[in-house]
Amino acid sequence: MSTLGATSVIFDLDGTLVDSEPNYYEAARQTLAQYGVTDFTWAEHEGYVGISAAETTALLKERHAIEASPEVLLAEKNRRYLELARASTRVYPEMRKFVELLAAEGVPMAVASGSSRVAIEVVLAGTGLDTSLRTVVSADEVAHGKPAPDVFLEAARRLGAAPEDCVVLEDAAPGAAAAHAAGMRCIAIPYVAAQADDPAFATAGLLLRGGQAEFTARTAYDWLVRSAPSR
Fold first, then answer.
1. Are strands 166-170 and 185-188 parallel, antiparallel or unpaired?
2. Looking at the domain assignment, is residue 166 inside a domain?
3. Can you give the pLDDT at residue 51?
4. How many domains, the chain?
């Protein structure tokens, strides 16, 4: 039996398991350029980290006064993203080790992401993570995206786990806020270092301010053991 008892682990995908943000940035940059917006920067992109694809697209449309509908804009951006994701998506090495460590112990795991289900499945299949992470919830499948807790609560439901037995791994403040609202413990690995002081991250049980450079599978596992609720 696992030393983690009834613990289940729910992973955010983008910026947490995989470094997909460069692909999302490039997809958005190419899409905006098609509509005459040629000054979209990485710094602007960072402001949308942790927000669902649909909400990000709506905000980009408003900010840059694009005439196309949000649905058309989102479809174009998703098409470009999927092309990039299929070509190359990098898994964080220590995250892969962590998934493999949990899988070896039979810990229930899920992915809960603001990306579309198609995008999630493409990335998981392309990286081989789908062999361990079979339970997937997209923000498209729930009423409200992060920072609402819906996507994490649905993941817990599909795992058959109580929220208090779940641990969320997140790289963005809206995700950390969603985990807290769901009544789940959280390991926070900020993707944008400058956002580490966001109050949402203060609710995390383990905050690794150095992001992925500080994260190790062993550190996360040991924390899970120490923080597992007693029964």
1. parallel
2. yes
3. 82
4. 2
